[in-house]
Amino acid sequence: MARVLIVQGHARSRADTAATLRAEGHDVLEAGSADHGVRLAHEQGPEVILLDPMLPDRSGYELYASLQRDPMTLAIPVLFLPGSPPPAAGQLGTGTAVADLDIVTRLGLALRTKALNDELRLADVSLRSAVLTDSLTGLANRRAVEERLRALTGLAKLGMGPLSLVLTDLDGFAEVNDHSGYAVGDRLLQAFAGLLHESCRGGDTIGRFEGEAFLMLLPGTRLDAAWNVAERVRRRTVAIPVARSCCAARAVGLVAVTVAIAARNVMYRKTLKRMLSLASGTRRS
Predict the structure, then answer these.
(1) Residue 273: C-alpha distances to residues 204, 238, 277 (Å)
(2) Which of 2, 5, 84, 209 could form a disulfide with 215 if both were Cys (CB 3.0 to 4.6 A apart)?
(3) Domain end marker among 130, 160, 193
(4) What is the pLDDT of residues 132-161, one digit of tens each?
């Protein structure tokens, strides 16, 4: 069942509510004040908070507003408890049973809603990841690269260091598909993507831009260092097993890599289309 935090100033009412929920199988935490409730919420991470509007140290509504501003507790559902204590012992009637049933029902609804919201949040993260990831190579796709480029160029405009762009293209890739089949072409793209990943640092962004063209964003990298990265990629590409097997089978004479680079002072003053055009004009094969 769920971990539930009851924040209620009236001790007997809190004990009665806790007993009802424990009978339903819930793990119940109790706090008699707002400050104690905040501390338990941070330390224990309850799935739901039951909150008394009237607390000894401050209003329950003030506490609710505070919980909503706190990133650690923002996602925890809060249910307000009835404000008045139940009748004295010996005067219990159907009203108490209805109140208990009501809080159990409300708690169940809150838990189901929370579960649904959690699933939606996870689905949203997964969906965004799928939308921004190239399914074949696992690298960022064009949309993700363009989003990252906009962010990095914004930092470059503020003088946050150099920024270089490396455009790589597999020359002869169409011949690989034509002579060896798309399965071999896919393996070549995957191997090349792995090579690019291994050639870059953790803060760099590598993405499949389109077809056999890949884009590398190198923040904090000047033009001469970017050329060194590009040259390293070019040299290592001939060692890709898939590329060597294609050549050995004479499917293509050579699987070459064309490397093109645009530097930061070009990037943040030009559109992406213009930058890629400039990069393509500085090709190295």
Answers:
(1) 20, 29, 6
(2) 209
(3) 130
(4) 888 888 888 888 888 888 888 777 776 767
